[in-house]
Amino acid sequence: MRAVLLSVGFLIAAGAAQAGAYEDRRAQCLGWMVQGYPSGLEETACTAQFSLPSPFLFKCAHAQRKGYDSELQRNACRLFFEEASIATGHGYVRSN
Questions:
Q1: What CA–CA distance (Å, rounded) separates 21 from 13?
Q2: Cα dist. 34→26, 29, 43 in Å?
Q3: How far is residue 46's CA from residue 4's CA, in Å, rounded to a whole number?
Q4: Is residue 73 a contact partner of residue 63, using CB atoms and an 8 Å limit?
Q5: pTM given for the model
Q6: CB crowding 17-39: b at 16 or more within 10 Å, else e
Q7: Are 53 and 67 in contact (CB under 8 A)?
Q8: CA dihedral in degrees (49, 75, 91, 32; nearest 10)?
Q9: Which of 36, 65, 76, 82 has the most crowded Cβ, counting Cβ within 10 A?
Q10: Rounded to an integer, what distance in angstroms lies between the CA atom of residue 36 and that of residue 61?
Q11: Can you tell me the distance from the alpha carbon of 29 to that of 6, in angstroms, rounded to the nearest whole number?
Q12: Is 51 left (phi over 0), alpha (psi -120 to 50) or beta?
């Protein structure tokens, strides 16, 4: 009986630790989303796991307010927003 109680206790503790790890990972990914990911692998994993938007969105929004570093950056941001606008036009509208 004691072994069963210990096993249940370990399972509960593992579940709580896993939930904490999930929240820690989510917070880490949200921070990287705004500041920039350390690698493409982390970006791919975070965007897939938590459905996060591209960090390029934030970089372009910042550059739009503060100024672009180059013509190339401005053109890349313009293209990014144009493609997002087209995708929005084809988006699914939920009915109530």
A1: 12
A2: 13, 9, 11
A3: 37
A4: yes
A5: 0.57
A6: eeeeeeeeeeeebeebbeeebee
A7: no
A8: 20
A9: 76
A10: 14
A11: 34
A12: left
Give yes or no for residue 73 having a pLDDT over 90. Answer: yes
Distance between CA atoms of residues 43 and 3, nearest Å: 42
Structural tokens at position 1: 């009986």
DSSP tally for the chain: helices H, then strands E: 4, 0
Q: Residue type at 13? A: A
Neighbours of 68 (CB within 10 A): 16
Please say whether the beta carbons of 60 and 81 come within 8 A: yes
pLDDT tens for 18-48 read 568 999 999 999 999 888 899 999 999 998 9
